[in-house]
Amino acid sequence: MSEDEIAPLRSGKAWAEFCDAIRRAGDVVLREASPRDPLDVAEGYRYVARILRLALEQQLENSDALVPRFQRGLSETIKLGNDNPDQVPLLAALDGRHEYRIRGRRGTVAYLSFGTYLGGDYGRSGRSGCSGSLDAADLAVEADGRFEIAVACERRPGNWLPMEPDTNQLIVRQTRLRPSETLAELAIERLGAQGPPRPLDAAELQRRLAAAARYVHGSVNVFADWAEAFAAHPNELRPLDEAVKLGAHGDPRIHYLNGYWTLGPDEALLLEFTPPACDYWSFQLNNYWLESLDYRYHRIALNKASAAPEPDGSVRIAVAHADPGLPNWIETAGHRHGTMVLRFINAAEHPRPRCRALAFDALRRG
Q1: First-to-last CA distance in the chain?
Q2: pLDDT digits (tens, 9 = 90+) for 82-97
Q3: CATH number, domain at 321?
Q4: Is the domain of 211 the same as that of 306?
Q5: Is the pLDDT of residue 201 over 80?
Q6: Ordered strands of the 71-72 beta sheet
Q7: Are residues 149 and 186 located together in one domain of the fold?
Q8: At what angle do helices 38-56 and 13-25 cross, to 10 degrees?
Q9: Number of structural domains, the chain?
Q10: Which domain range does residue 53 map to?
Q11: What mean pLDDT, rounded, does the chain reach?
């Protein structure tokens, strides 16, 4: 590398630019449409800090597509874009110019999918979306649950997950209906790989810092745009545009209905719908920043297995600040507003729930 390439790092300019970019990302909390409640502001800055943690792990520690490894994506304390409490996502860096092999054991999760993507930091120009998808239901699996998947641009015999030449990321989604379900055991390797990772060089670090900053800035602003759009139709659930979903690295087999909820101290929100035949569905409550509310301590989500249906198969879900004495109560966990999402996986149809804001006493009376 030339001296000119590493001069910004030697002088401290690259680090200063990274810090300035992260400071600017925090301006999302001060957008004109962003809420000003102390809780919303505090959660907003925490959210930016959480996404910075994710970006640093992804871009500085796990970005080498020559020696890829799986990284836990979202978790109880790193949340982004309607994170699903039932899902354990894994990420790995890819490069469409190479070929990879995934080895695994199926486990018992209700839904397991593999997707290759291009773009991905929400701040990069150019194409973004899904370049290949594979549902575990279509996997050829050995009797003991083991399987292999070829990840390549050209078709391969057996289990094949397509890429394109500019593919740069793998996302594995493991979604459980019940906590007792076991996760898949997974490993990934690049075919033809030899030896350990290369030593880090100065020019590469500069690129990774810039990529991390783009990821933070792009992510928090994209989903703030979503929240603002949802807020235009309070207490409704509306289908998410498929192109928007795929551009944000959504799973093509998942259908989303998103919304914004807002309730006064003595109000509740009642949702009513009949779930279709599907592998999985869930409803969850988020804060304004599209982070799921703290499911470690509150029941903020229900799914196909945990929701209690009515005798006719329909489901009534009550979002309320206090327990209304109904079986499908979703807690607001100290929030007066936020976003919400209903998702269906491999569903025969996608019903749009009836949503009604009503007095809490009226909900409790039935």
Answers
A1: 71
A2: 999 999 999 999 999 9
A3: 2.60.120.600
A4: no
A5: yes
A6: 71-72, 87-93, 169-175, 111-118, 129-135
A7: yes
A8: 140
A9: 3
A10: 1-61+199-222
A11: 95
